[in-house]
Specification:
Chain lengths: ~300, ~300
């Protein structure tokens, strides 16, 4: 035990002095830091891949960290990236309000910040890159009306209450359907962007209120859950999701899902890196960069 | 030789932490600088405070899975009091009281209700998460005053305030466990409940008290998190119970109770914090980070077990 310990100590000291010497030869290239709200969701994984691909193409090193949907972890991630000496911070916030202090940490160290997908409240950032969710909600409502000849009874599966995506997609959707005498929204219930919850909520709605012919879900995960419930109950309805994830695109191809309003997370990631590089080169970039949405149908 | 071995065993968590720091500083030169080390200490503080309370519970042979939810409830309460009443003192006091009350609720169900701690606090975890959702209506509470965000962000003589809070909590806990009758009873209860009861210890009240302590430390964690982020999120603290338990176990405390120390828990929390920070600095892909963390916990417990044989 003693011998083991002393060997360990000597080894440690030896290597310790070495790492001290290495400090002079630190990396000289500029680094981009990226903090993503969660990688437990294919949407954000696509965003990550888009960013990585662009960084590789432009020849910049990018460090990507996962906040696991925890604002406290998000702040630690930002602090760690600042320590690493990044030149630009790209952040996809876990929550629009909670991210302000984390962004302040970067800005205090004179690191410009680009937000992606979710905006930051209460702080000024250099650039915000996001899809136009209100427009997406309108697109979804319009698609349903076109398909059903202007007359529809629609179920709305909402996202996490209060989340900006929930508010905006719902807003766009209601701007089209509200006040239209031929359209009735028979149920509006939250299923928290979750596939399992989408299934459960849809089952309940089918029991309580089976008279509808279309479903608009605020994201694909809930739409896919709803399809499971509809199939189990042998109920036919036009299902429209949101995000354009791989599972949803497959479901649209197989005819189970009518359409998905595709966000392009890979494009967002790629645009973020492209603009981060512009900042590094000293160019100016726009404050808002909208990313196109597209309706994916069979 | 024997003495040295005993010493090495006593400080094995510390040696582990030391070794970990060496390895990380070899790989990335950015680890060993004062700013980053202060960063790590601040990042560790919330888990360390919660884990200190958790140590009391685990020393009696219990477990508290509700700490993450208590953190969310008390954080939300503090945030709403600050934004409505703007009284820092009231917000902190009431949060601590609510934390203590929830702890008492858990503790009484365990001691008087004779339900297993795992079940009681598992139910508590769900109930108080739900309470947070109801209370906040599912939306984060923001717009907190400067006074309040001071707690999580300010530095006093260069030392981050959360670190100072953690140190004070540690001192109080250390005193309670080592210098008071209560502390000895906690160990006695965890060692052998029947003989503790037969020797005249009021085991029910000790059992209740440890959950109250855990509730209070979770509330302190809630206040720090909320003020650090400047916003109380309804899903704050999910999964924190597991980090706290891991810190306690890494610190050499036995889940069976009766054995372990508060200082060990602090070291355990440091190991987790250094690992988190180090893996980030070393650019380890987030997908691999969880695997590494799990393996380190397993390795530590394995070494612990081998040494005890």
């Amino acid at each position: 035990m003693k011998r083991f310990l002393s060997t360990l100590l000597v080894l440690a000291l030896f290597i310790g002095t070495f790492s001290g010497c290495n400090k002079t030869s630190q990396e000289s290239t500029k680094k981009i830091g990226m903090v993503i709200s969660t990688l437990n969701n294919p949407f954000f994984v696509s965003m990550k891949e888009g960013a990585e691909k662009k960084a590789k193409e432009l020849g910049y090193e990018i460090v990507i960290l996962d906040s696991q949907n925890d604002a406290s972890k998000e702040r630690s991630n930002v602090e760690d990236l600042v320590q690493q000496g990044i030149s630009v911070l790209i952040i996809n916030p876990t929550d629009s309000d909670a991210v302000a202090n984390s962004i302040a940490v970067a800005q205090q160290n004179n690191i410009p910040v680009i937000t992606v997908d979710r905006a930051a409240n209460g702080v000024e950032v250099t650039c915000h890159i996001a899809s136009d969710n209100v427009k997406g909600g309108k697109l979804a409502a319009q698609f349903i009306l076109d398909k059903l000849g202007g007359k529809a009874k629609i179920v709305e599966l909402q996202g996490i209450p209060g989340a900006s995506a929930t508010r905006d997609r719902g807003k766009g959707f209601h701007e089209v359907v509200d006040g239209n005498a031929n359209v009735k929204v028979v149920a509006s219930q939250p299923a928290d962007f979750d596939r399992q919850k989408g299934l459960n909520v849809m089952e309940n709605i089918i029991q309580a209120n089976p008279d509808f012919d279309a479903v608009f879900a605020h994201n694909d995960e809930m739409a896919l859950g709803a399809i499971k419930a509809l199939n189990a109950a042998n109920k036919k309805a036009l299902v429209v999701g949101f995000d354009g994830t791989q599972d949803a695109v497959d479901a649209v191809k197989s005819g189970e899902m009518a359409a998905t309003i595709a966000q392009q997370p890979d494009v967002m990631g790629s645009l973020a890196v492209e603009n981060a590089v512009k900042l590094i080169k000293g160019e100016t970039i726009p404050k808002q960069i909208p990313v196109d949405l597209k309706v994916i149908t069979k | 030789m024997e003495k040295l071995k005993a010493l090495a065993l006593k400080f094995k968590s510390l040696i582990g932490l030391f070794f970990l720091c060496i390895v990380i500083s070899i790989i990335t030169p950015r680890f060993l600088n004062i700013n980053n080390l202060l960063n790590v200490l601040t990042q560790v503080s919330v888990n360390a405070v919660i884990a200190i309370g958790m140590s009391f519970v685990i020393l009696t042979g219990g477990i508290d899975l509700s700490v993450g939810s208590i953190l969310a409830v008390t954080g939300a309460l503090a945030a709403s009091l600050i934004s409505k009443q703007n009284s820092l003192f009231l917000a902190i006091l009431l949060s601590l009281i609510v934390g203590a009350l929830i702890g008492a609720f858990n503790g009484l169900l365990v001691s008087k209700g004779k339900i297993q701690p795992f079940i009681v606090t598992l139910a508590g975890m769900t109930i108080f998460r739900g309470v947070t959702y109801v209370y906040t209506n599912g939306t984060p509470i923001s717009g907190l005053s400067k006074d309040f965000t001071f707690i999580g962000n300010a530095r006093v003589l260069g030392i981050p305030f959360p670190v100072i809070i953690t140190f004070i909590v540690f001192l109080i806990a250390w005193y309670l466990i080592n210098e008071t009758r209560f502390g000895r009873y906690v160990y006695a209860l965890g060692g052998n409940e029947d003989s503790a009861r037969l020797s005249g210890i009021n085991t029910d009240s000790i059992k209740t008290m440890v959950y109250v302590i855990s509730g209070i430390t979770a509330a302190i964690g809630g206040i720090i998190v909320t003020s650090r982020i400047g916003s109380a999120s309804p899903n704050a603290g999910s999964g924190y119970e597991l980090d706290a338990i891991a810190a306690v176990v890494l610190g050499g405390t036995s889940l069976a109770g009766g054995e372990g120390s508060i200082a060990g828990t602090i070291i355990g929390a440091m190991i987790i914090g250094v690992l988190n920070n180090g893996l980030n600095l070393m650019n380890v892909s987030p997908f691999y980070q969880s695997i590494v963390k799990g393996l380190v916990i397993l390795l530590a417990v394995l070494i612990d077990k081998k040494n005890k044989k």
